Amino acid sequence: MIRRLYDWTLALAAGKRAPTALGAVSFAESSFFPIPPDLLLIPMVLSRRERTWWFALLCTLASVAGGIAGYFIGALLFEQVALPVLEFYGYTGKIAEFKQVFNEWGWWFVFIAGLTPFPYKVITISSGAAAMALPGFILASLVSRGLRFFVVAGLLYFFGPSMQSFIEKRLGLVFSLVVVCLFGGFLLLKYL
Predict the structure, then answer these.
(1) What's the whole-number mean pLDDT along residues 83-106?
(2) pTM above the 0.85 mark?
(3) DSSP 3-state of 62
(4) Are 103 and 33 a contacting pair, CB within 8 Å?
(5) CA 163 to chain centre
(6) In whole angstroms, what is the distance from residue 101 CA to residue 138 CA?
(7) C-alpha pair distances (Å), 8 with each of 27, 145, 174
(8) Number of domains in the chain
(9) Which among 139, 83, 81 has a CA at the least distance from the CA of 114?
(10) Closest by alpha carbon to 59, among 19, 32, 115, 118?
């Protein structure tokens, strides 16, 4: 099933309605869809380099809007919708941990998760379920998702197709390492 969704998503990138598809996939990925929008963003940027920054902005705004939908799914439809989504990703046993982390780290947790390969929909739904302040959630989402998509688009814009393989295979790892360093720096500042 995931392979068919993957192939379908790639086919969307080549169509006339690719920007609409990019927005839809970016929105859906932040609340329930399992395929990341990068799979559309990468070929679209490579094929229409002059629209790079527009595609990154579209991806960011649609992702944040989808994140807000995920937030409200967690806040208002937890039992009916959020629980099945969290079960699908294997995170139902971690809900209490998420609530504790949200209470302790707030928007930093959303920011960090928005950069990493961690399923963002789990964070958006958990943010709503944990009753995180909506303005902080939106700000963290805008900054992290914008950073993620503009970095991907920028790497492709400046380095072209040779960067595609790196992004598809290792960018999640690079973002994760950056987040670990960032988090470690904040911990050092807090305890020094």
Answers:
(1) 75
(2) no
(3) helix
(4) no
(5) 20
(6) 17
(7) 16, 23, 27
(8) 1
(9) 139
(10) 19
Amino acid present at 113: A
Query: Tokens 């930093």 correspond to what residue?
Result: 108
Please state, as a whole number, how many other Cβ atoms lie within 10 Å of the Cβ of residue 182.
Answer: 14
- Domain residues for 60? 2-191
Task: Give the Cα separation of 148 and 19 in Å (integer).
Answer: 18
What is the number of residues in the chain?
192
Range picked from 5-9, 52-56, 169-173 for highest mean pLDDT = 52-56
Q: pLDDT digit string (tens) for 50-61?
A: 899 999 999 999
Note every long-range contact of 76-85, with CB atoms under 8 Å and residues 24 or more positions apart, other chains counting.
76/128, 78/128, 78/129, 81/32, 82/125, 82/128, 82/129, 85/32, 85/121, 85/122, 85/125
Residue located via tokens 């991907």:
152
Tens digit of each residue's pLDDT (9 = 90 or more) over 103-157: 777 788 888 888 777 788 888 988 888 888 999 999 999 999 999 899 889 988 9
> Can you read off the two tokens belonging to residue 188?
């050092």
Rounded Cα–Cα distance for residues 114 and 134 (Å): 15
Number of H helices, E strands in the chain: 10, 0
